[in-house]
Amino acid sequence: MKNLHRIAFLAWLVVIIALTLLKSFYQIGYLWDPDNQRVREIILEPLDVWRSSSNWFLSVFEYGGNTALFIPFGALLFIVLSMGSSRGGSNRVRGGPRTGWASVWKVAVLAALCSFSIEIAQYAFSIGRSSTDDLLSNTLGGFLGALLAKAAGPKLYPFWSGVSLALAAVFAVLVGLGERLGDPEKIVD
């Protein structure tokens, strides 16, 4: 079962990398224009999209999407950490899985570090807008994912892994379909 959780976590990492660092190389329908992803910009003002957007949907999509993207990351990382190490001895505390609050906060910190690394890479390689909003939303998503996994308990660990693998597979199919999804005539600027 440990391997299922690790595979699910790695599959979700691939989804995160594809959606944050590789969007200039593919598209899903007409959700974004790959050419618009080749930018180098830093947005340090928190809640900038919320304040500057004339379209409420863009704000919801931006914050909700970034938070949702990291919920599986947080849940799966919490699960993998709670399963302990596969090397020799057990990393379980007093016979049980490591599923305390310290693990939830550890996941939140690791989500923040992962998100920060993504933002740095986006800036360094001119492949996206580096934003404090992304960092905050991603960290919140990782925290919420860990919190959900902790609250649901070990019996639902296979559920989280299964759903994440299914979503990663759907994502792969959508990437494969690319421009065939949607009608370019109905795009409104």
From TrEMBL:
Bilayer-crossing regions: 7-26, 63-83, 104-125, 157-177
InterPro entries linked to this entry: VanZ-like (IPR006976)
Lineage top rank: taxon: Bacteria
Coiled-coil segments on the chain, per record: none
Keyword field: Membrane, Transmembrane, Transmembrane helix
Domain VanZ-like intervals: 9-150
Designated name of the protein: VanZ family protein
